[in-house]
Amino acid sequence: MFRPKHPTMPQPTGTVTPPAVVEPTTITPGTPAPTPVPTAPAPPSRPVVQLTPGTALALVGGGTAVVLVVGAVLVSMLLAVAVTAASLAICALVIRSLVNAQHRR
User: What's the distance, Cα to Cα, between the start and end of the chain in Å?
Assistant: First the structure.
């Protein structure tokens, strides 16, 4: 009951082929391969992007919008942290004054 049961290895099925015999071969020297001729590089497959005044204006406007949105998000997060810190400071002052008033009585 407490002894582990190990699975047995199954016997191979079908016919087993013996390994093939490899016979050594002789190497005969041949003629040397011709050297490759250098070819000219292929022209670039991408078309050249041309910026018109309209697309440049659109890129500048899009970049400005992204900078303004990211800046507004960062400023709002900073403002949220500042408001939270101020409210915690006010709560600490109120609790400290209440504790000091109790000790005076």
Answer: 76
What is the spatial distance between Cα 43 and Cα 33, in angstroms, rounded to a whole number?
29
Name the band, by pLDDT with cuts 50, 70 and 90, for residue 73: very high
Nearest Cα to Cα of residue 67 among 79, 59, 57, 55:
59
The tokens of 100 are what?
A: 């000091």
Tell if the pTM clears 0.70, that is, is over it.
Answer: no
DSSP of 18-42: PPPPPPP------PPPPPPPP-PPP
CA distances from 89 to 3, 9, 94, 96 (A): 67, 74, 9, 10
What are the angstrom distances between the C-alpha of 63 and each of 53, 66, 73, 94?
15, 5, 16, 47
